[in-house]
Each structure stands twice: as structure tokens, then as C-alpha cells.
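Subject: two folds for Thursday's group meeting

Dear M.,

Sorry for the delay on this. The cluster queue was jammed most of the week, so I only got both jobs back this morning. I'm pasting them in the order they finished. Each block is the input sequence followed by the predicted C-alpha cells. Could you check whether the formatting survives your parser before we put anything on slides? The first protein is the one we discussed after the seminar.
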Amino acid sequence: MMEQVHLAGEDEDELYSGYNDYNPLFDTENLQQDEGFQNAVKTSHGRRPPMTATRQFAIQRGQMGTTAGARLKTGLVSSMGARPVTGIAAADGSVARPMTAVKAAGYSSTGRGQQFDPMNQASKGPAPPLETKNEDTPEEKIKNLEKKVNGLIEESCLANSRGEFSLALEKAKEAGRKERMLGRQRDELFNGEQVNLDQTYSVLFNVANQYEANEMYQEALNTYQVIVKNKMFSHAGRLRVNIGNIYFKQRNFPKAVKYYRMALDQVPNTHKEMRIKIMKNIGIVFVKMGQYSDAITSFEHIMSEKPDYETAFNLLLCYYATGDRDKMKKTFQQLLGVDLNLDDEDKYLPHPDDKHANLVLEVIKNDALREKEKEAKEGMERCLMAAAKLIAPAIEQSFSAGYDWCVDCVKQSAFTDLANDLEINKAIMYLKQKEFSQAVEVLKTFEKKDSKCASVAATNLSFIYFLQSEYQLAEKYAEVAMTADRYNPAALVNKGNCLFVQGELEKCRDYYQEALRTEASCTEALYNLGLVNKKLGHLEASLDCFLKLHAILRNNAEVLFQIASLYDMLEDTPQATEWFTQLISIVPTDPAILSRLGELFDNEGDKSQAYQYHYESFRYFPSNIEIIEWLGAYFIDSQFVEKAIHYFERAAVIQPNQVKWQLMIASCHRRSGNYQQALETYKRIHKKFPDNIECLKFLVRLCSDLGLKEAQEYATKLKKAEKAKELREQRASSGTRRTGSGRSARGGSAVSRYGNTRLFCRG
């Protein structure tokens, strides 16, 4: 135990020694007399960085010390040992503190409170004002004029983009005038050395474009020729494509091909896209010219270089025109194999667990790139459907076999969704050929397929049965279509039509309204809703429907007629006249509309306008008895009885057994003073209608006025005819009384049988 005890020896330091000593760094009493400290303050050694946290803590306690002071006070050294002496000796022989090579910027131990001015700018005073630019120099004038020309070009392009073509052309011409003025000034100042070819090219090119936009093709061609023939413009030969486009618009196809080929020679092989576009133009021109073999050569070259669906479709059209079945099949398969370079559709599907991905999806699913992809896909599908419709009857013995081949090819391609659409088109082709049973058979095959196809097929079946007046089957398949897809507006419209035929107007109106809630632009539902409201007597609601439809279908004759008819029923004659006038501008040869418009003007007392429209109606439909009668009466009222004879003669031809037209002709002759002709006409009438009392009266009067012996003979016949008429009237009145008494005796049974007959007819 004792071996582990340590006893302090006499030579060892005392255990509690050193506690009364203090650190000389904290001694601040003799700092003013410390030469080393004062020299350190005056040199860069004293400009130390900011104090650390430890030193700051010491200062907060009101203590300060330096190593120099401690060293002079006690002669102690730091834990790092003695500090080496560096620097230059002072004048008194002592060693100065180290000095830096560069004096600190803006800081000094002397001159505190002075303004910070490292660049010595205060002594120079304020900066002089900027010199004003002299805009009167020729160079500045030219620069300003160039800016004005560029501004006019920009304004012209913006006006063209807004569709203001006349304003765009005016701005382009003004830019051309200023550019020519600019060229003259350059020639005067620099002797033609400084020429801005780029601006000249821009001005001429813009003027040519604006001429073309305003359909001033000859002026555009002249301007393009100026550019093309100027050798100073590099790559100007490509503008021959624009010249070819103008000739194409003018249907001058040989010159269009010529300039397209010249432009193709100007484009190097490295510009592959440009060459393909020009080749496509050449092929289209050859199609317009009927030179299908040359067009096939161009399109085949494009398909070998960079195939696209438009070129493939055009190539298929050429093979169809030449009747090459095998090439049609091959090209259809090439069309199916065209790569649209579209992204996978799955990337647009929502992610249930990734909110960030869903936010990104909301942004990109309807952006410009997505719309471009949709447009390309829709164009491809449209070409495929049109190609299948076109070649199906030509590639096989029957169009049914041709459609089957196309459907098989589509099912093996990336466009499998179009196979069902082709099947439905097949049924529609049967309908066009009036093979209804075949169409129904094809459509019924969709009953067990997916809901969308089943709904479309059932909708078509309902439409077919409705046209065949099989309303029960039509209603059945309309319900099948609604079951497969409740939001199918066509199915809702078909269901409403079936109820309309059955007379259930309130129910059919509900279906039309539901169809409109599903698809606000369903024109069939809106039109039928207007008809239902009109039939129910809700004229204001019906008018509102047709006005909405007019905003969708501008210049539709049926819609305009309904609007005009409703205003007429509402007795708003000015509005009815205005809408009928608009309708006449669309269907100027409709005699019924012309006649109705004439009646409106006649009711308003405007006889001249009424005559104009009645006469136009007569021109397009000269067999309308009502119009003929109105025109004859108009000329009689206007004291032009000779012209009225022409219309009554036409009426007599149309209705030869109607005596009134013959009498009107004779009356016109009599009114015009041509009594002899009137007498001859009355004699012909009497010969054909011997019992006509009115004719005999006029014969008696004319013969008496002319002093003819035949007057007595006609007077005798007149008395006999009047007696015969009285006897007929007496017999008719007595027979009516006997019939009435018989009905009184058998009233119950007769009325009940008549009533049953009416009910049966309604059923």
C-alpha cells in the first residue's frame, strides 16, 4: 500500500505555487511608454483583423493586453518561443516592426474622419456633363433613316399577321420609298461604297410578300424577279419557290414546275428538308396536271428519303388514279408504317402517388407541343380513314373484301384503335349503297364490343330504323346506345326524336336539353329543341334556341327560315322582313320565300316591292296559282289589263276546268275596250260551259251594246239557266232537310261509329 503513495520531495515545486502570478498580456499600465507597442501601432502590424470571440470576451471584461507589453514587462516569451526580429532598423538603432509592401486602401492611423477617396477624385471636382450627340451629321442621318425603314418593315409584317393586308402593303411601299431615298444619300456621301444589301433585300422581299397577300400576283412576280436576277443577293435563287407558288395559285402549272425545279437546283444537297419540300410541291403540281407517273417519281423519292403520311397518301392517290392494285396495297402498308415521332401516351396519364408529377402533367398536357402532337396524330388518322375508304372498293372484287383487308392491316399496325372505325365506315358504305340489311348486320356485331364502339354502332342502328319508320326499334337501340354511353349526345337526340314522333313533346324536350348539357355545341339537339318549343307554343324560347344556333351555323338556310317564321308568328313584321331578306341572299331561287316576302310587303302597303318579289317567285315557279292570281289582280288594279291577260291565260292552261280564269280573260278584254275579242271569248266560254249564268249575262250585255241579233237568243238561254239553277237549289235544300231528320232518328249510333273511326285513324 505504501508503495503506491507519492510523497513530495523538497526539491519539487510547491503544489499550490503559481496562483498569485498573472498573465503579462493583460498589463495595460505602461502601454504609452512601451516603444515596441507604439511602433507596432504605427506600422501595418497594428492593423490586425477583427478580434476573435476570445479577445472580444476579454474586452467586455474591461481588460486589454499585448504580447509586446508583456515581453517588456517580464521578459517572458510565448509558448511558441521567441519571435524572430524582421524588418528595417529604426533611426535610433532599435528594430522596427515588419512592414507590408502595399499600404491598406483608405485606412491610416492618422487622418481619421476624412472622406474615403482612394482614387483622389475630390480634388478634381464634379464630372463634366456628357457630350450631346450631334444628329446633324450625315452618318447619323443615315442611321436614323435605316431605323425608320426597319420600323416600317416590322409594322408591315405585324399588319399582315393581323390580316390587314392593305395596310401591310402600304407600309411595305413606304419602306421601299425610304430605302431608295437612303440609297441616294449614301451615293452622294460615300460614292456607293457603303451599301446595306441586307436591308435592300428585306425591303424588296417584304414588298413581294405583301403583293402576294393582296393577290396582286403580277406585281409580286415582278418584285421577286428583281431579287432573283440581282447577283449581289446570295441565296436569292430559293425565292423561285415563291414564284412557283404564285404560278400554282394562278393555275399556271407548267411554269410552276419550271420554277420549282430551278429552285431545287439552287438548294444544295446538305439542305435535305428544303429539297424534300420542293419535291413535294413538284409532285402536287404533277397531280394537278394529271401527270401521275411524274408525280409518282417525286413522291417515291420522298418516301425513300424521309417518309411522311401526307406524301404516302398522295402517292396512294396516284396509284389509285393509275389503277395499280398491288402498289395501292403496298403504299397503304407504308402509310401505316410512317413514324410520327410522338412521345408515349402513357406519360400523360396521372400519377396517383406523385403530386409533383401531376403538377407537371397539368402544365404539359395542353401546351403547344402537346397540341402539335394531337394535330399530327389526327392528320395521320384522317389520312388512314380516307385511304381505306378510297382503295377498299378498288383493291378487291368487292368493297367488303377490300375493307376486310384494310381492317386486317390496321389491326397489325400501331393504329389498332382505328379498326373499329373502319368497320363502322363499312356499314356506312352499305347505307350509301342502300344495302340496309348488310349495314344492320355489320353494326350488330359491335353489341358485344367495348362500350364506345357499341354506343356508336347502336346510335347508327337507331338512326337507320328511324329513317325506315320503325320507331320502336329506333327507340330500343337509342336506349342501348345510352346504356353503353350515357353521355352520347347523338343517342339522346335519337331518343328524343322517337318521343317527338309519338307526340310526347315534354319528354323529348328533356332529352334534347340533356344532350345540350352533355355537348353544348350539339346542333341537332338545339335545332330540335327549337322545333319542340315552337310546336308547344313557346315562341320566345324557340326563337332563343334558333338565335343561338345561328351564332354556331352562320348562313344556314333552315335556321334563318325558322327565325324569320318565328318573328312572323310574333307579328314583328320589320324583323321578319329583315330575316327573310337575309334568307333570300342565301337561297335566291326559293319561290315560297319570295312569295312570303312579297306578302309581307303587300300587307305593309308597299305594292312595288310586293310585285317585285311575287314576280321573282313566278319566274322560278310559274305554276303557282296563288302567285298568278295576285299578279293578275295587281295589273288590273294598276290599270294594265293587257298584262293581266297573260297571267290569266297561264292560269287557264294550268286549270282548264276552272271557268273563272276564262271569265277573267274576257273581262280584261272588255275593260281594255276590245269588245269584239271579249265577245269571242265569252262565246268560247259558253260553248264549253253552257250553264254558266255569269257568261250568259255578259253575252246578253255585249250583244245588246253591239246591236247584235244574238242578244235575244242569249237572253232566252239565260232565263232557262237561272230557272235550272233555282230548281237545283230547291232540290238541294229539300234533300238537306230529309237527311237531317234521318240523322235525328239514328243520332246515337251514327255519331259513335264516326267517333270510333277517328280514334282508329289516330292510333
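Second protein, same layout:
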Amino acid sequence: MAPPRNVVKIAVQMRDAIPQLIQLDQAKPLAAVLKEVCDAWSLLHSERYALQFADGHRRYITENNRMEIKNGSILCLSTAPDLEAERLLGGLQSESREGRREALRHLVLLAPDMTFAREVISRDGLQRLGTIIEDGDDLGEVLALTLRAFLELMEHGVVSWETLSIPFVRKVVCYVNMNLMDASVQPLALGLLESVTLSSPALGQLVKSEVPLDRLLVHLQVMNQQLQTKAMALLTALLQGASPAERKHMLDYLWQRNLRQFIYKNIIHSAAPLGDEMAHHLYVLQALTLGLLEPRMRTPLDPYSQEQREQLQALRQAAFEPEGEPLGAGLSADRRRSLCAREFRKLGFSNSNPAQDLERVPPGLLALDNMLYFSRHAPSAYSRFVLENSSREDKHECPFARSSIQLTVLLCELLHVGEPCSETAQDFSPMFFSQDQSFHELFCVSIQLLNKTWKEMRATQEDFDKVMQVVREQLARTLALKPSSLELFRTKVNTLTYGEVLRLRQTERLHQEGTLAPPILELREKLKPELMGLIRQQRLLRLCEGTLFRKISSRRRQDKLWFCCLSPNHKVLQYGDVEEGSGPPVPESLPEQLPVADIRALLTGKDCPHVREKGSGKQNKDFCELAFSISYDHGEEEAYLNFIAPSKREFHLWTDGLSALLGSPMGSEQTRLDLEQLLTMETKLRLLELENVPIPEQPPPIPPPPTNFNFCYDCSIAEP
């Protein structure tokens, strides 16, 4: 007879004792269960003990999380969290250095547990740790352990970062600014200051004033990947917290100190692989730097500005006036104005007064900046562009100014200029760090590409929008390849000719579209069930392989990873925390299990509880698109297992696989694409023998029956 559903068979172990195999009744109070376990080992005062999970982070079992205990779980009997907290905090006062170190090691191990953390915090544990940090008597392992324990306790959000005192923050800043410091201390100190900067504007200003940018540059130049990552994290946090004017000043200074060159040579092209966290911070740095262009992009040209009028004249003169030959020497003022207006039209402005073209925002003054940069840094290419098109027929000339304005808008869209930074994105471009003035240099390459494409298409003024669509596709496809330098980008984008774009479009269309003849549609419908079964099998195999998921708090990115996979018999989801840098663990070593039979539903996007807690800001769009949760029976209540997929593809694979386990249809975009690809391939294989044979829209008519059936053979007549 099967045991009741609320009874689980578990093992309880204790040091120097024979383990107990018991049946745990989840309906029984936890205190009563502890009493029975202690009685079996003849232990008095059961209130002094607590149960912990033996695997993973050895979390304490409470009434809130006891339903996570499953059949076969291994628990251990340990000191109650309040007594353990009291003991370890007492150990911090030990006169023995080894005693203090041992207490801190245990504190670091138990600090991730919320139950234990609350007990430590309620006993002024943070203040005691803060005192050790402020005193700074030991700058080695003791200080590193203290900082790590402090960070772990603060991560629970029980105490606000804004409550930290100014002397404490200054002391941590002192550790960052010291030259001779233990290598394990400074990454932790930098991480603590990053949290302070992101969480408290007032303390963030203190950190900004106390930590020189030169000091962060020194840390970035140390060949220690962890130290580099934390230094870059604090740098991007300081930049995000600065005002636009301060941010521009800071970035100008960093660029003058050759930060860009160092990042390109020693971080992007380092022998060690680039970590996810560093990739995110490089993305943020790129976005903030491109964000400096936003004010120019949002500002229209002022027709009354003398400086801007002079810039427009300089643009015209660079194209049409040789050096030392002023416009219309000896001509009247009216004649000079008429000649000037005609040349502005040749330059590609829609109006004789170019200020009217540049009143549009975006791109505003950024388009003028790009045109001036091109005329000054590539004067021969600029003159060739303008004069070549001036000599064409009016309907075939490529308007330089109009093209530049539209191309600037296009580049701002492709590079997300002015958009808020995503909290999870890692989509930075190595090319951005290979070149000074990367946006303007990219424009110079793109405007010459546009002229080349215009000639390949033999375009007229009516084809302007079509040309811009092709150029958008050329730029987007090349940027997606993430070329490592501007020269490589130039080479790749110039090989992507108009003919090549048409070929790629045709290939994609053939992949996406099949013939619409009814017989083919009928064949596809008959193939669908078999192919959907193949996709379902692939999704379940992917779940069995497992995936590393990243834990992301509502405040900032986290370093912590956890692994989840499906058991080979498709009965249980196995999961647990793993260390950063380690490979996928063996499924049998994972401490947590969730029976598939207990799963109620699959939730995605805004329906997930961890998305609702995070809020609905613009920066959470990427987070929302990658979030999904499993709701499952947790005793009498409903509980959730929350996921943040590492990529959109992993999101589709996992939601499809979980839907297949629950017997629900797999409705992701990836399933649609995979099914379409398989259907196209299978249909083509089936139709190989009918190549070049036209398939009729309607089946051929059935001929009428014959007038007689005398041709039938009568089998009953015996042969002679």
C-alpha cells in the first residue's frame, strides 16, 4: 500500500551517529518532528537543534520551505540557527586569529540562507562585521572573509544599502585605493562599492569623489580577470549614476587615458575567454558612450546660429570651391546668393535653404556633424561623391545631404542611440572599441556604401526608399557578424552587394515559403504530426542535457548560477546551485528534485511571479522576454520555480519541452521555424522525382465509366 501523499521517506544524519531512516509526515509540526529525531538519538532540548539539507548550501528547513523535502532527501541535524548565529558572532570576538578566521568561514557558508541571515542581522551581526572592516587590523584572508560575509548578508535585502555610514564606505574606498593589497580583498571591495553606487545616490556621489578614475584604470590593467570585471562594474555604475555633463567629462578623460585601446587589446582580445558579466559591462559602456550623441540627435539646426551657418558654408565650399578661390568673385550679392542656393541643391538638400532639411529630429545636428566629419576626414571621397552625382542626370543623381540625414537616422536605430541600457544584454560590438570616433567613422563607410549600392541598383530619385531598405539590410547583416575592426567591417559590407542581398532574400524566401498548390499543402498536413513528434523528441532531449541559468536580483546582475535538467525517464526535474566557472554537474549530484506529476502549469513573461516583483520599467523588457516559471503543488499551497533563460533560443527550447511534458501544444516561434524547415526539406525530398513537372492546382478529372465492362476477366471460367 502506497504511503499518503504528505508522507515522504528521508534519511537524517548527524556527526558520529548512525543515520535514521524515517517517514516524515508533512502535516506534523516541525517541532514535533525534531523532538522525535532527537529522542531517537537520546538528545535533550530539541529546541536547540534544527534540520538542514545535507547537500547544496545546507539551508535550514523551516515551516515555509519544508515542502521542498522530497522522497529520498538527505537531511542533517545541526545547531539551531539562532544558537549558531550567536556562536559564530561570539567567535568573531575570539582573541585567537585562527578562531576568528574559522568563525568567518562558517559565517560565509551559512550567510546565503535567509533564516540564518535574519538571525545574524537581528543580533547586530552587520555592525560587528562592519567594525572589523573599519578597523582593518588584518588585510588578508580575515578581511576578505568579512567582506564576503557582509556582501552575502546584504544581498538578502533585509537592510538597505543606504543605511551604511560614511566612515564605513570611506574605509572600503581605502581598500580599493591601496597599492599593496591582498588580491582577494579588492574585488570584494569593488563589488561592495558597486552595490552602494547603484542603490544609494548620496553614497554613490561619495564613492565617485573618493575613487579616482585613474585608480580604476590601474585595476583594469592588472591581469586578474575577476579584478578587471569588478573594476569595470564599478566604472559603469559610476557612469550610470552621473549626470549627462559629468558622464561626458568622465568618458572624455577615460578615452584620453587610452581606455579604449586597452579594452580592445587586453580584454576583448585576451587569451582568456570573455565572461558574461564583462560582456554586459562592455555593452553598457558602449551604450553610454553612444548615448553622448543623443543631445545632438535631439537638437534641430538653429537658422540664426552663426556657427551653424558657417558649418553649412564649409560643407558647400569643400565640395565646390577650390582652395583660394572664393565663390563668385566679382559677382553681385544677389548673383552669389543664387549660385550658393543652386550648389546647396546639388549637394542634395531638398530646399535652397539647407536649415529646413536639418530641422527634423532625429537626426538633428548629428547629421550635420556626420557630413562635416566626412568632408574633413575623407575629403577626396567626399568631393568624388558630390561631383560624380552632380554630373549625372537629375533623376539618377544620389542626393548626398538627403542620404546623409536618412543614413544618420538609420545608424542611430541600428546602434540604439538614446535607448536605455538593458539589465542583461551582452550585445556589444568589438569594432566600437577598435576606433576613435567610431560612430562618425562608421558613417563614412556607410555613406560610400550607399553611393555604391545606388549605382548597382541604377536607382532614381523615386527609388530612394528602396535603396535605404537595401542599405539597412547590408548594415544590419554585417553588424550582426560582429566584425572586430572597422576595416573588417568595410571589407564585409562591400562584399554584400545588391546582387548578393537579392540572392540572400531569394534563398530565405525559398526556405520560408513553399508552393501553395493544394496537393502540396495536403502533403504538408500529413507530414506535420510525424515532424512535430520529432521536434518534441528533440526538445525533451535538450531538457535532459540541462542548462545553466543565471540568478538575477531586482537590483543588479548576480554571479550565481544554477543548473536544471530533466531525468532520462522524464519523471523528475533535477536542479541545484553550481559554482561560477564550473561545467554542468552530473544530474545525480543535484540536490533538488521536482516531480513532473506535481507541476500545475507553465507561466511566461509578465505572468511570472519574479517578473511581477521586478516591475514594469523599460529596462525590464529583455528580462520579461526571457522569464518563465513552473507552478507546482507545495503541500496545500502553490509554489513556483522561476527561470531566466540565457538566450531567446534557450527560452523557446525550455518552454516547448515543458509544454510537451505537460501535454500542451508547443507554440513557440522556434517550433514554428523548425517545423517549417523540416516540412520544406521533407516536401522537397518527396518531390525530387517531380522536378520541373508542373503540379496542377486541381486534380485531373476522373473519366466517365466505360459503356460496358466486357473486358473484365471472369475467373470462374476454367481454362481448357
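Two things I noticed about the second structure. The mean pLDDT is 87. The CA atoms of residues 210 and 227 lie 19 Å apart.

Cheers,
T.
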